[in-house]
Amino acid sequence: MAEPAPIDFYFDFISPYAYFASKLIGPVAARVGRRANWRPFLVGVPVIQVMGLRPLMETPLKSDYILEDLARLSRHFDIPILLDTNFASNSRAAARAFYWLADRDARAAEEFARSAFDALWRDGRDISDPDVVVALAGTVGADGRQLAEALRGERLRQRLIDEVTAAVARGVFGSPFFLVDGARYWGTDRLAHLESALKGSADSS
Amino acid sequence: MAEPAPIDFYFDFISPYAYFASKLIGPVAARVGRRANWRPFLVGVPVIQVMGLRPLMETPLKSDYILEDLARLSRHFDIPILLDTNFASNSRAAARAFYWLADRDARAAEEFARSAFDALWRDGRDISDPDVVVALAGTVGADGRQLAEALRGERLRQRLIDEVTAAVARGVFGSPFFLVDGARYWGTDRLAHLESALKGSADSS
Asked: Among A37, A142, B28, B177, which has the highest number of CB atoms less than 10 A from its own CB?
């Protein structure tokens, strides 16, 4: 029997909800016998350019509430999170580094992604700084000089643009976002629905 | 001992997520020993006027996804919902009728709210039509002629404006939305967090 399709896990490093998902997706995937396929993208592209909305933390009323909600989720999942971190940070360098790594070693890329999430949301480091990104990639075995050069080049820049375009074309518009077996799930709180749907399909196979 | 504070349950009849909440809030409130205080409002006011966003079903990418999400929630909660109903329906007449009833008989107002939700989301009736609203109110004992007259008047129109303004001033920006003990909960999926928080407070009291 062929390996079942992976769960495509779309996320933006700047999304605090995706940070929680980065801790939860592994156990969920294991329980349903699927692989998680990590796909960083830039959530601002669908939110601002396609949907015509505002960034989450620049939306009146919602921004205050989000902090309250995140504090509760942090307790609920028992995952510490810094709530005074730089929400305006941008994740281009980290996302580009991810794909550079992924072309060389998929496992290292995923490890890098976990450490970039922790760097921003647990340790308060500025992952918009390419030097920080290169240092994080070094801890998973990347050649820092080569990566730093790639981060300055056009090719990797275009690679991320292509990934974001492909994600939006598949209907991805939020972070975290999960695609599997033709179904879309938006938000950490929908992981339970994904798990229940995949358990159903596993039981009937 | 004084009665504990109620759960303020803010909702817009046009919100399909609020329809699910209208079925769930009673059992949740009973389990935590609180009363639910039903408060219809017009979610378009905070969403469009204050937050500068678009109506949910007029947002590219999101509108398709919402239908997929609602179909799953319908199965998850075992609550049938019409997904080809008129999402663009407006709820002003129903919300005004609710407050007119509430000033006379709080229990009848709540019963009316349940039946207006069912009329729109289960039976596909057009609750933007004052005649439909008056007929629904008649089933909970309202005097149809008096209500119809009130629905044409300035006083009830202003009453709803005041209620919406007060809701937004309290930080309500979505539907369903729950306020209790100084905490805000947005969305049907946060009812579990509300329940868990109130169970914690009940245990320690």
From this structure: B177
- Please state the pTM of the whole predicted model: 0.91
- Angstrom distance (rounded) from CA B57 to CA A178: 21
Residue A205: pLDDT band (50, 70, 90) is very low
- B→A contacts (Cβ < 8 Å), by residue, are 46, 50-54, 59-62, 64-65, 68-69, 72, 76, 168, 171, 173, 183-184, 186-187, 189-190, 193, 196-197
Place of tokens 């307790």: A75
Cα–Cα distance measured from residue A98 to residue B34, given in angstroms and rounded to the nearest whole number: 49
The answer to whether the CB of B56 falls within 8 A of the CB of A174 is no
Cβ of B59 and A51 within 8 Å? yes
How much is the ipTM here? 0.87
Kindly tell me if the per-residue pLDDT of B201 is higher than 80: no
Write the CA distances from B141 to B105, B111, B137, integer angstroms: 10, 10, 7
CB spacing of B72 vs A197 below 8 angstroms: yes
| Type of residue found at A36 | A
